[in-house]
C-alpha cells in the first residue's frame, strides 16, 4: 500500500489552496502588456505565497523552542489556536517533541502523564484522525514513551536516598539521647521507618507508571475511534487497520499497555471503526475490494483476530467483521457465489 507522508499531505493541501486562487496564464499575458496591470498581477502572485491558510500551516509546522519564551509562545499561540484541532489530526509531532525533550532532561513518568493528558484533551476536540499519520506516529510514540514506564533503578534509588537522608537527619537530631540510652529499640524503630519509606516510594512509582499506561490506552483508543479513510481507498483502509493492530501489539511488547485485555480493547476499537467505515461507504466500495478483504480474512494470519474472546458465546472479531461485510456485500448475486471464499463464520456456520 502506498502511504502519503505528512509532508506530502500538507503539500497537497497547499497546492489545493493555491489552485483555488491561481491566475489563469492565458489571461495573464495581456495583463503584462500594461505596466499598471503588470504591477497588480505581480502583487496578486505574491499574495498567493502569503495566503493566510498557507501561513497558518507553516506556523503550525514550526518545531517547539524549549525555552521559557518558546514554551509560553507554543501554548498561547499554537496549542490554544482555534485551528489547532484541524492541524493535529495530520501529525502528532508536537507531542513527540515534548516526550523527547523530557527524555533528554531526565523527566519521570509524571511528566509523561502530563504530556499525554495535554494532547488527549486536544485529540478529543478533533473531528477525525488521519490513519496514515497515526501509523507514522505510533513507533515514535512507543520509542519515546518506553523509558517513562521502565523500572528506573537509578532514579528510584536516588529519590529514596534523598528522602531517607532528610528523614534520618530529623530523627538523629531529635532522638540522639534516646539512641544513646536504648540503641536496640532505636535501631528497630529506624529499620521500620526505612522499610515503610522504601515501600512508599516503590508504590508511588508503580502507581504513576500504571496511570501512564492507562492514559496511553485512552489516547490510542480515542485516536482509533476517530479514524477516517476515503471510500475510494477502501483496501488501503483495510491495510492500515492491520498495520495499526501490529503497532498496538508493539505497545504491549514494550509494556506500554498493561496486558492482552488492553490490546483486545484496541483491536475491538479498530474493528468497530472499520465496520462503521464500511457502513457509510459501501456504495463506493467495489466488489473486487470486498472480495480481497474477505480473502485476507480467511487466508492471512492477522493479529487483529489473534486474541480470543473472554467467553465462547461471544461473537469473535473475525465473525463480527464478516457479518458486517455480508450486510452490504451479500445482496449482490456475484458475491453470494464467491468461488474462493463463501462468507461464513469461522465455525463454518452460515452468517
From TrEMBL:
Write down the superkingdom of origin. Bacteria
Please report the name of this protein according to its UniProt entry: Uncharacterized protein
Amino acid at each position: 500500500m502506498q502511504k502519503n507522508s505528512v509532508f506530502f499531505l500538507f503539500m497537497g493541501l497547499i497546492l489545493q489552496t493555491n489552485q483555488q486562487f491561481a491566475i489563469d496564464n492565458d489571461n495573464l499575458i495581456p495583463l503584462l502588456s500594461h505596466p499598471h496591470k503588470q504591477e497588480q498581477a505581480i502583487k496578486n502572485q505574491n499574495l498567493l505565497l502569503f495566503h493566510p491558510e498557507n501561513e497558518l500551516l507553516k506556523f503550525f509546522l514550526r518545531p517547539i523552542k524549549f525555552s521559557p519564551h518558546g514554551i509560553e509562545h507554543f501554548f498561547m499561540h499554537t496549542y490554544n489556536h482555534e485551528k489547532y484541532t484541524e492541524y493535529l489530526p495530520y501529525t502528532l509531532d508536537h507531542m513527540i517533541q515534548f516526550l523527547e525533550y523530557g527524555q533528554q532532561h531526565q523527566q519521570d513518568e509524571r511528566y509523561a502523564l502530563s504530556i499525554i493528558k495535554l494532547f488527549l484533551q486536544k485529540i478529543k476536540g478533533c473531528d477525525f484522525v488521519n490513519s496514515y499519520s497515526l501509523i507514522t506516529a505510533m513507533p515514535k510514540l512507543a520509542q519515546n514513551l518506553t523509558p517513562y514506564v521502565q523500572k528506573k533503578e537509578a532514579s528510584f534509588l536516588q529519590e529514596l536516598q534523598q528522602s531517607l537522608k532528610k528523614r534520618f537527619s530529623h530523627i538523629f537530631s531529635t532522638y540522639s539521647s534516646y539512641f544513646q540510652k536504648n540503641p536496640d529499640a532505636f535501631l528497630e524503630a529506624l529499620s521500620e521507618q526505612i522499610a515503610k519509606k522504601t515501600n512508599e516510594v516503590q508504590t508511588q512509582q508503580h502507581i504513576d507508571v500504571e496511570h501512564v499506561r492507562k492514559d496511553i490506552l485512552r489516547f490510542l483508543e480515542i485516536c482509533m475511534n476517530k479514524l477516517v479513510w476515503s471510500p475510494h481507498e477502501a483496501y488501503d483502509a483495510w491495510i492500515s487497520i492491520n498495520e495499526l493492530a501490529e503497532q498496538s501489539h508493539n505497545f504491549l511488547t514494550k509494556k506500554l499497555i498493561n496486558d492482552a485485555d488492553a490490546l483486545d480493547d484496541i483491536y475491538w476499537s479498530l474493528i468497530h471503526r472499520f465496520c462503521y467505515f464500511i457502513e457509510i461507504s459501501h456504495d463506493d466500495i467495489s466488489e473486487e475490494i470486498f472480495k480481497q478483504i474477505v480473502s485476507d480474512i480467511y487466508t492471512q494470519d492477522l493479529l487483529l483476530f489473534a486474541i480470543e474472546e473472554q467467553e465462547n458465546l461471544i461473537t469473535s472479531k473475525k465473525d463480527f467483521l464478516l457479518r458486517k461485510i455480508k450486510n452490504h456485500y451479500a445482496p449482490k448475486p456475484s458475491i453470494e457465489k464467491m468461488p474462493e471464499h463463501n462468507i461464513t463464520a469461522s465455525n463454518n456456520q452460515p452468517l
